[in-house]
Amino acid sequence: MKLAIVLGLLVIPLFFVSLYSYQHAPRIPFADQMLGSLRIAIKSYDGDLQFQDLWKQHNEHRIFFTRLVTATLARTSHWNLRLEASLSVALGVANLVFFAFLLPRPRNRLSLFLLVPIAYLVLPLRLWGIWQNSFLNQHLFVVFFMLLALLSLQKMPRGLAVLAVTAFWCFCATISVGTGLLSWLAIGSILVLRRNRQTGEILVWAALTCLSITIYFHNFILKGHDPTDGSLGEKLVYALTFLGNPFVESGSQWIPVATFWGLFALVTWSLCWYRILQLKPQRWNSLIWIAPGVFAIGAALLATISRSYIGSHQALISRYVVYSSLLWISLIFAVAQLLQVEPKTASRRWLRFSVIVISVVLSLFYIHSNISSWREPSSISPDLENCFLQYPETGDFSCLSGLHEIFIPQSEDASRRKNLLRRVRQLKKRRLTIFFDTETVTPPSMPLSTPTVPKPTQGSPTMEIVSVLRESSTCIR
Q1: 308-336, pLDDT tens digit by residue?
Q2: Which of 215, 395, 404, 450 has the maximum number of C-beta atoms within 10 A of its C-beta?
């Protein structure tokens, strides 16, 4: 009976995320997909794709596996973007399964019940930007490979072989997106904190880390902002807001709440793990769980250095929930461990009571933020998809001009418009994305001969979509 209840609770987030992705995932490329992924898809479809195309730098990152998915789908499904979005959901499910394998298997069923809050943090609607825009699957790939590294470290016998396998998975995380570099730090923290640590292992890991960084930054062009921009207080608020992201909506009005929850998570996580490391002999299966928290804190600091100049509201964009959730998952595991090993005293009873109260409050915040995320509109409207279909025939840019940032930068000119027209015609010629099946796209309200859409004004639905896209911009720096 308990197993059935837990399984039922696990299905709920998967159901809503799958439904949201199916309803809102666009059928046409936009933003970084139009500027970068489109070339990968065309080269792959034509059989001209080379390794360098997948390895090439994107902003301050290498997104090898995101491009590999695009290249594969271009060859097998005419670059079906809704299928690509469903693969993002599949990645989220895989990450949940990996967390399940990482859980220890004690005599009681604590591990089974721990899966429930973990599932709601791994598959939240708060990640609506990723469930819509398959280009952002790069962030899910980072967690995917880091968890594989942790599983290798946990399951394989100690020695150089396990370090080599773990390093391979960390390198895969590194070339998924730049944040993956933190996986080396997360694994390194485990090797240092274990009581029977070996200096040789730590030195080998440090050497492998340096080698990975060297490969990653070979022929790399750094594009960053001065990390000294902004005051120390602003940077601190940004980092804490980043960590409290899973339990609030996007928007400046939620910064104080997110800052509070971020500070709470950081302090509680530090105290819990400090207590665990002191209270009992370290269990290898338990120590593994400190790594997600280290990764999340590193991600908050990295985002603070590179993005805090924009403002603390930027720390609340949906894709960052992938990383901030890792701190909360690590915290949940630490609290569960303390509830098991703390002596049966009055302090333990207070700990249980505090956990129950805080869990209820956090659940209410979580539900509110996810309901708000469910209401997020599609990034691409059906009218815009229809305009995209007509564009190769008519060359009429008027219906796209209000949303130019979806396709080309704001500094558009005649040459960029011509380049856009060429790209869209390339898609149509190869029947990629929406051009593979056009029968269900053209509504009667927009005949092919007259693709006219009024110029968007402030407050119009079109401008609302622009606002959504600005908030979920994929140009990470």
Answers
A1: 888 888 999 999 999 999 999 999 999 98
A2: 404
pTM of the model: 0.86
- Structure token pair of residue 72: 């594969």
- Centre a 10 Å sphere on the Cβ of residue 403 and count the other Cβ atoms it contains: 21
Cα→Cα distances 161→147, 168, 175, 248, 443, Å = 18, 11, 22, 43, 59
Structure tokens at 255: 């910064």
DSSP state of 281: P
The helix (run of H) or strand (run of E) holding residue 64 is helix 64-76
One DSSP character per residue, 29-46 reads --THIIIIIHHHHHHHHH
451 neighbors 383 (Cβ within 8 angstroms): no
Which residue from 230, 154, 151, 215 is spatially nearest to 181, judged by alpha carbons?
215
Burial of 252 (0-12, 13-18, 19+ CB in 10 A): exposed
Structure tokens of 193?
């904190």
CA distance 374 to 17: 9
Cα(53)–Cα(48) distance, integer angstroms: 10
3-state DSSP call for residue 155?
helix
Report pLDDT digits (tens) over 353-368.
Answer: 888 999 999 999 999 9
pLDDT at 197: 79
